[in-house]
Amino acid sequence: MHPDFTSQLTKAVRLVETKLDDCLPSVAQSLVAEPMRHAVLNGGKRLRGFLVLETAGLFDVNAKQALHAAAAIECIHAYSLVHDDLPCMDDDDLRRGKPTVHVKWDEATAVLVGDALQSLAYEILSTKGAADSDAIRVDLMGSLARASGANGMVLGQAQDIAAESAKAPLTLTQITDLQANKTGALIKWSAEAGAILAEQPMSALSDYASALGLAFQIQDDVLDIEGDAQATGKRLQKDVDAGKATFVSILGLDGAKARARSLVEQAQDMLSTYGAKADTLRNLAQYVIERDK
Question: Which residues contact 55 (CB under 8 A, 6 or more apart)?
């Protein structure tokens, strides 16, 4: 990986978190402001926000403008985690090494925080600074709604819940489809956002993101087996204990790692049309399978 990549990622994280801090309500403004801030600003890789900024940069979109979409996708991602951690769903008590919202506050607060973060994402995208025209803002909001809704991330969460009571573990095809929805849909939108902002074709970025999202999930499954709980900031081997199918349980640890490497190569190949300008996105694909959290 290029030595500049870490500094580029760190800089982007700083920019996105500053934007999020500006967009989130203050504690004086709202009863749910503190748990919202806990959910959003308590660490995180900012992979989705970084993808927005980098794909926007391919088309020379102003970074200040692209930060709106970057902040919006991070709000949607945080909302999905807050709800996914609830006892009625994945029942997690740790997120990014900190107590989950329903543990630190209560379940009702967690539901409301997720609702508020989802609303905030669309509020951010609706502002004048988010895009050059009303049409682009509508495109951003509509595409994000599809990616996060009943045929995207929410569908993936429903598939995941259904798998817990299924008579047989999911097949490789089924788990690939589940993860393309649950994890991949928001990653794909993040990569497409730059093209939407610039009103440019997005097929190459869509293909890149599909491979990237799947590699990301496979690495999550690998880390669930051989990762460090302190580094990941969450409980490990929950899926194994529950008997749920994962890429590792189906492919084996070595097979899963090989599949992730192949997907990274596919993702990188999809960027050929952008030349050296996409080198950071190529490095991001490599980072996805080298990370430890």
Answer: 190, 191, 192, 193, 194, 195, 205, 281
Which has the closest alpha carbon to 74: 22, 35, 130, 16? 16
> What is the CATH number for 79?
1.10.600.10
Convert 134-172 to b/e letters by CB count within 10 Å (16 or more is b): eebbebbbebbbebbeeebbbbbbebbeebeeeeeebee
Mean pLDDT by 10 residues, the chain (293 residues): 82 96 94 96 92 98 97 98 95 90 97 98 97 97 98 96 88 96 97 98 97 95 80 62 82 96 97 95 95 83
Domain count, the chain: 1
DSSP state of 25: P
The model's pTM is 0.93
- Per the structure, the complete domain to which residue 255 belongs is given by 4-290
